[in-house]
Amino acid sequence: MSYNLLKGKRGIISGALDENSIAWKVAEKAHEEGATFVLTNAPIAMRMGEINKLAEQTGSQIVPADATSVEDLTTLFTQSQEILGGKVDFVLHSIGMSLNIRKKIPYTELNYEFYQKGMDVSALSFHKMLAVAHKLDAINEWGSVVALTYMAAQRTYPFYTDMADIKATLESIARSFGYHYGTQKKVRINTVSQSPTKTTAGNGIKGFGDFFDYADAIAPLGNASAEDCANYCITLFSDLTRMVTMQNLFHDGGYSTTGVSMEILNKMGIEG
Ligand SMILES: NC(=O)c1ccc[n+]([C@@H]2O[C@H](COP(=O)([O-])OP(=O)(O)OC[C@H]3O[C@@H](n4cnc5c(N)ncnc54)[C@H](O)[C@@H]3O)[C@@H](O)[C@H]2O)c1
After folding, report:
1. Hey, which residues does 149 pair with through a beta bridge?
2. How far does residue 148's CA lie from ligand 1's centre (Å)?
3. Is the pTM here over 0.85, yes or no?
4. Distance CA 115, CA 237 (A)
5. Alpha-carbon distance 210 to 239, whole Å?
6. Cα 267 to ligand 1 centre (Å)
Protein backbone atom coordinates (compact mmCIF):
# COMPACT_ATOMS: atom_id res chain seq x y z
CA MET A 1 0.00 0.00 0.00
CA SER A 2 1.30 3.43 -0.90
CA TYR A 3 0.97 6.50 1.33
CA ASN A 4 2.66 8.92 -1.09
CA LEU A 5 5.16 9.67 1.66
CA LEU A 6 7.88 10.67 -0.79
CA LYS A 7 5.75 12.36 -3.42
CA GLY A 8 7.83 14.97 -5.25
CA LYS A 9 11.04 14.01 -3.46
CA ARG A 10 14.31 13.30 -5.25
CA GLY A 11 17.03 11.00 -4.00
CA ILE A 12 20.17 8.95 -4.47
CA ILE A 13 20.19 5.25 -3.53
CA SER A 14 23.49 3.38 -3.30
CA GLY A 15 24.18 -0.32 -2.78
CA ALA A 16 21.52 -2.22 -4.77
CA LEU A 17 23.48 -5.27 -5.96
CA ASP A 18 20.70 -7.80 -6.43
CA GLU A 19 17.11 -8.27 -5.36
CA ASN A 20 18.20 -9.40 -1.86
CA SER A 21 20.01 -6.11 -1.18
CA ILE A 22 18.44 -3.85 1.42
CA ALA A 23 18.96 -0.93 -1.00
CA TRP A 24 16.99 -2.80 -3.69
CA LYS A 25 13.96 -2.92 -1.38
CA VAL A 26 14.43 0.74 -0.45
CA ALA A 27 14.41 1.66 -4.15
CA GLU A 28 11.21 -0.33 -4.75
CA LYS A 29 9.49 1.30 -1.76
CA ALA A 30 10.73 4.80 -2.62
CA HIS A 31 9.32 4.33 -6.11
CA GLU A 32 5.99 3.14 -4.69
CA GLU A 33 5.92 6.18 -2.39
CA GLY A 34 6.29 8.60 -5.30
CA ALA A 35 10.00 9.49 -5.23
CA THR A 36 12.30 9.87 -8.22
CA PHE A 37 15.92 8.87 -7.70
CA VAL A 38 19.26 7.92 -9.16
CA LEU A 39 20.74 4.48 -8.46
CA THR A 40 24.45 4.12 -7.88
CA ASN A 41 26.92 1.34 -7.19
CA ALA A 42 30.62 0.60 -7.67
CA PRO A 43 31.52 0.22 -11.37
CA ILE A 44 32.61 -3.36 -10.65
CA ALA A 45 29.15 -4.24 -9.26
CA MET A 46 27.57 -2.92 -12.47
CA ARG A 47 29.06 -5.85 -14.34
CA MET A 48 26.55 -8.16 -12.71
CA GLY A 49 23.93 -6.18 -14.60
CA GLU A 50 21.15 -6.84 -12.08
CA ILE A 51 20.81 -3.14 -11.26
CA ASN A 52 19.58 -2.46 -14.81
CA LYS A 53 16.41 -4.42 -14.00
CA LEU A 54 15.80 -2.25 -10.95
CA ALA A 55 16.43 0.90 -12.95
CA GLU A 56 13.87 -0.19 -15.53
CA GLN A 57 11.36 -1.21 -12.89
CA THR A 58 11.62 2.13 -11.05
CA GLY A 59 12.18 4.42 -14.07
CA SER A 60 15.58 5.42 -12.68
CA GLN A 61 18.92 6.26 -14.19
CA ILE A 62 22.19 4.77 -12.96
CA VAL A 63 25.34 6.77 -12.20
CA PRO A 64 28.25 4.44 -11.36
CA ALA A 65 30.50 5.63 -8.51
CA ASP A 66 33.14 4.00 -6.38
CA ALA A 67 32.16 5.38 -2.97
CA THR A 68 35.83 5.67 -1.95
CA SER A 69 36.49 8.17 -4.78
CA VAL A 70 35.70 11.84 -4.10
CA GLU A 71 35.91 12.42 -7.85
CA ASP A 72 33.29 9.73 -8.58
CA LEU A 73 31.06 11.05 -5.80
CA THR A 74 31.32 14.58 -7.16
CA THR A 75 30.18 13.28 -10.56
CA LEU A 76 27.39 11.35 -8.82
CA PHE A 77 25.95 14.37 -7.02
CA THR A 78 26.43 16.70 -9.99
CA GLN A 79 24.82 14.34 -12.52
CA SER A 80 22.04 13.33 -10.14
CA GLN A 81 20.95 16.95 -9.78
CA GLU A 82 20.96 17.33 -13.57
CA ILE A 83 19.00 14.11 -14.10
CA LEU A 84 16.47 14.78 -11.33
CA GLY A 85 16.10 18.50 -12.07
CA GLY A 86 17.27 19.93 -8.75
CA LYS A 87 18.79 19.27 -5.35
CA VAL A 88 18.08 15.93 -3.70
CA ASP A 89 15.92 15.33 -0.61
CA PHE A 90 17.26 11.96 0.50
CA VAL A 91 20.38 9.82 0.24
CA LEU A 92 20.82 6.15 1.19
CA HIS A 93 24.30 4.86 2.06
CA SER A 94 23.99 1.06 1.88
CA ILE A 95 27.62 0.08 1.36
CA GLY A 96 29.70 -2.44 3.24
CA MET A 97 32.68 -4.67 2.53
CA SER A 98 35.42 -6.23 4.69
CA LEU A 99 38.22 -8.27 3.16
CA ASN A 100 39.12 -9.53 6.64
CA ILE A 101 35.60 -10.99 6.95
CA ARG A 102 35.63 -12.28 3.40
CA LYS A 103 38.91 -14.10 4.01
CA LYS A 104 37.79 -15.26 7.47
CA ILE A 105 40.75 -13.66 9.28
CA PRO A 106 40.27 -13.62 13.08
CA TYR A 107 40.05 -10.23 14.86
CA THR A 108 43.32 -10.82 16.75
CA GLU A 109 45.22 -11.31 13.47
CA LEU A 110 43.70 -8.62 11.23
CA ASN A 111 45.40 -7.67 7.99
CA TYR A 112 45.79 -3.88 8.25
CA GLU A 113 45.68 -3.22 4.53
CA PHE A 114 42.34 -5.01 4.42
CA TYR A 115 41.30 -3.10 7.53
CA GLN A 116 42.04 0.25 5.88
CA LYS A 117 40.25 -0.80 2.70
CA GLY A 118 37.20 -1.90 4.69
CA MET A 119 37.21 1.36 6.63
CA ASP A 120 37.46 3.40 3.43
CA VAL A 121 34.69 1.51 1.61
CA SER A 122 32.28 1.10 4.52
CA ALA A 123 32.76 4.17 6.76
CA LEU A 124 34.90 6.93 5.22
CA SER A 125 32.78 6.68 2.07
CA PHE A 126 29.93 8.03 4.20
CA HIS A 127 31.99 11.05 5.23
CA LYS A 128 33.09 11.54 1.62
CA MET A 129 29.49 11.36 0.38
CA LEU A 130 28.37 13.91 2.95
CA ALA A 131 31.37 16.19 2.34
CA VAL A 132 30.75 16.20 -1.43
CA ALA A 133 27.02 16.87 -0.97
CA HIS A 134 27.81 19.64 1.52
CA LYS A 135 30.39 21.26 -0.76
CA LEU A 136 28.08 21.18 -3.76
CA ASP A 137 25.10 22.19 -1.58
CA ALA A 138 23.30 19.28 -3.24
CA ILE A 139 20.76 18.42 -0.51
CA ASN A 140 17.60 20.46 0.15
CA GLU A 141 16.81 21.87 3.60
CA TRP A 142 15.18 19.18 5.78
CA GLY A 143 16.71 16.56 3.50
CA SER A 144 17.48 13.19 5.08
CA VAL A 145 20.53 10.94 4.83
CA VAL A 146 20.48 7.37 6.14
CA ALA A 147 23.32 4.84 6.43
CA LEU A 148 22.92 1.19 7.38
CA THR A 149 24.79 -0.25 10.33
CA TYR A 150 24.87 -3.21 12.70
CA MET A 151 24.79 -3.55 16.48
CA ALA A 152 28.34 -4.94 16.60
CA ALA A 153 29.25 -1.24 16.94
CA GLN A 154 27.92 -1.43 20.53
CA ARG A 155 28.33 -5.10 21.49
CA THR A 156 30.95 -7.63 20.57
CA TYR A 157 30.25 -10.36 18.02
CA PRO A 158 33.47 -12.35 17.54
CA PHE A 159 32.86 -13.14 13.86
CA TYR A 160 32.10 -9.54 12.87
CA THR A 161 35.84 -8.69 13.29
CA ASP A 162 36.92 -5.32 11.84
CA MET A 163 33.40 -4.39 10.68
CA ALA A 164 32.54 -3.74 14.35
CA ASP A 165 35.15 -0.97 14.51
CA ILE A 166 34.14 0.27 11.07
CA LYS A 167 30.44 0.47 11.97
CA ALA A 168 31.32 2.36 15.18
CA THR A 169 33.11 4.91 12.98
CA LEU A 170 30.17 5.07 10.56
CA GLU A 171 27.76 5.81 13.42
CA SER A 172 30.08 8.46 14.81
CA ILE A 173 30.28 10.16 11.40
CA ALA A 174 26.45 10.40 11.39
CA ARG A 175 26.57 12.25 14.71
CA SER A 176 29.51 14.50 13.86
CA PHE A 177 28.40 15.44 10.35
CA GLY A 178 24.81 15.60 11.57
CA TYR A 179 25.74 18.49 13.83
CA HIS A 180 27.40 20.55 11.10
CA TYR A 181 24.91 19.76 8.33
CA GLY A 182 22.03 20.31 10.75
CA THR A 183 23.11 23.71 12.00
CA GLN A 184 24.09 24.97 8.55
CA LYS A 185 21.48 23.47 6.23
CA LYS A 186 18.90 21.64 8.35
CA VAL A 187 19.94 18.34 6.76
CA ARG A 188 19.38 15.31 8.99
CA ILE A 189 21.67 12.31 9.25
CA ASN A 190 20.87 8.99 10.93
CA THR A 191 22.03 5.38 10.95
CA VAL A 192 19.65 2.42 10.97
CA SER A 193 20.94 -0.60 12.88
CA GLN A 194 19.38 -3.53 11.09
CA SER A 195 18.80 -7.20 12.08
CA PRO A 196 20.91 -9.88 10.37
CA THR A 197 19.57 -10.04 6.81
CA LYS A 198 20.19 -12.67 4.11
CA THR A 199 22.04 -10.62 1.49
CA THR A 200 25.39 -10.98 -0.30
CA ALA A 201 27.14 -8.93 2.43
CA GLY A 202 25.32 -10.78 5.23
CA ASN A 203 25.97 -14.26 3.90
CA GLY A 204 29.71 -13.45 3.68
CA ILE A 205 29.96 -13.53 7.48
CA LYS A 206 31.24 -16.75 9.09
CA GLY A 207 28.41 -18.78 10.67
CA PHE A 208 25.83 -16.25 9.43
CA GLY A 209 22.99 -18.79 9.07
CA ASP A 210 23.24 -19.94 12.70
CA PHE A 211 23.62 -16.40 13.91
CA PHE A 212 20.56 -15.34 11.92
CA ASP A 213 18.52 -18.08 13.67
CA TYR A 214 19.94 -17.11 17.08
CA ALA A 215 18.97 -13.44 16.66
CA ASP A 216 15.56 -14.50 15.40
CA ALA A 217 15.03 -16.60 18.55
CA ILE A 218 16.04 -13.69 20.83
CA ALA A 219 14.07 -10.85 19.21
CA PRO A 220 10.47 -10.74 20.53
CA LEU A 221 9.25 -9.78 17.04
CA GLY A 222 11.81 -11.93 15.21
CA ASN A 223 14.40 -10.58 12.78
CA ALA A 224 13.40 -7.58 10.69
CA SER A 225 13.43 -8.34 6.96
CA ALA A 226 15.06 -6.22 4.26
CA GLU A 227 11.59 -5.11 3.24
CA ASP A 228 10.76 -3.97 6.78
CA CYS A 229 14.06 -2.11 6.85
CA ALA A 230 13.14 -0.38 3.59
CA ASN A 231 9.82 0.74 5.08
CA TYR A 232 11.65 2.21 8.05
CA CYS A 233 14.10 4.05 5.78
CA ILE A 234 11.17 5.52 3.85
CA THR A 235 9.73 6.98 7.07
CA LEU A 236 13.13 8.54 7.77
CA PHE A 237 13.22 10.09 4.30
CA SER A 238 9.70 11.44 4.78
CA ASP A 239 8.64 14.71 6.43
CA LEU A 240 7.03 12.73 9.27
CA THR A 241 10.42 12.37 10.97
CA ARG A 242 11.79 15.84 10.30
CA MET A 243 13.14 16.42 13.82
CA VAL A 244 15.05 13.12 13.98
CA THR A 245 18.77 13.51 13.42
CA MET A 246 22.16 12.25 14.67
CA GLN A 247 20.56 9.03 15.94
CA ASN A 248 21.48 5.40 15.70
CA LEU A 249 18.07 3.77 15.34
CA PHE A 250 17.67 0.07 16.08
CA HIS A 251 15.49 -1.79 13.63
CA ASP A 252 15.74 -5.30 14.96
CA GLY A 253 12.44 -6.61 16.34
CA GLY A 254 13.52 -5.73 19.90
CA TYR A 255 16.74 -7.79 19.80
CA SER A 256 18.99 -5.00 21.10
CA THR A 257 17.09 -4.61 24.37
CA THR A 258 16.35 -8.28 25.07
CA GLY A 259 18.72 -10.06 27.47
CA VAL A 260 17.57 -13.60 26.78
CA SER A 261 14.38 -15.17 25.47
CA MET A 262 12.47 -18.21 26.73
CA GLU A 263 12.95 -19.73 23.28
CA ILE A 264 16.73 -19.71 23.72
CA LEU A 265 16.52 -21.00 27.30
CA ASN A 266 14.21 -23.79 26.23
CA LYS A 267 16.67 -24.75 23.48
CA MET A 268 19.32 -25.06 26.21
CA GLY A 269 17.05 -27.41 28.13
CA ILE A 270 16.10 -24.78 30.73
CA GLU A 271 12.39 -24.56 31.45
CA GLY A 272 10.81 -21.28 32.55
N1 LIG B 1 22.93 -8.09 5.71
C2 LIG B 1 22.98 -7.85 7.00
O3 LIG B 1 22.91 -8.76 7.85
C4 LIG B 1 23.15 -6.44 7.48
C5 LIG B 1 22.80 -6.11 8.82
C6 LIG B 1 22.98 -4.79 9.25
C7 LIG B 1 23.53 -3.84 8.38
N8 LIG B 1 23.85 -4.19 7.09
C9 LIG B 1 24.43 -3.17 6.19
O10 LIG B 1 23.55 -2.91 5.13
C11 LIG B 1 24.31 -2.34 4.06
C12 LIG B 1 23.91 -3.00 2.75
O13 LIG B 1 24.31 -4.35 2.75
P14 LIG B 1 23.37 -5.55 2.25
O15 LIG B 1 23.22 -6.47 3.40
O16 LIG B 1 22.18 -5.04 1.53
O17 LIG B 1 24.35 -6.33 1.24
P18 LIG B 1 24.71 -6.13 -0.32
O19 LIG B 1 25.91 -6.98 -0.52
O20 LIG B 1 23.52 -6.40 -1.15
O21 LIG B 1 25.09 -4.58 -0.42
C22 LIG B 1 26.39 -4.06 -0.20
C23 LIG B 1 26.65 -3.08 -1.32
O24 LIG B 1 27.88 -2.36 -1.14
C25 LIG B 1 28.34 -2.09 -2.47
N26 LIG B 1 29.74 -1.65 -2.49
C27 LIG B 1 30.83 -2.37 -2.08
N28 LIG B 1 31.94 -1.65 -2.31
C29 LIG B 1 31.56 -0.47 -2.85
C30 LIG B 1 32.25 0.69 -3.30
N31 LIG B 1 33.60 0.78 -3.24
N32 LIG B 1 31.53 1.73 -3.82
C33 LIG B 1 30.17 1.66 -3.90
N34 LIG B 1 29.47 0.60 -3.48
C35 LIG B 1 30.15 -0.46 -2.97
C36 LIG B 1 28.14 -3.44 -3.16
O37 LIG B 1 28.27 -3.38 -4.56
C38 LIG B 1 26.75 -3.78 -2.69
O39 LIG B 1 25.77 -3.25 -3.57
C40 LIG B 1 25.78 -2.50 4.44
O41 LIG B 1 26.25 -1.30 5.02
C42 LIG B 1 25.72 -3.57 5.51
O43 LIG B 1 26.82 -3.55 6.39
C44 LIG B 1 23.65 -5.46 6.63
Report:
1. 193
2. 8
3. yes
4. 31
5. 38
6. 32
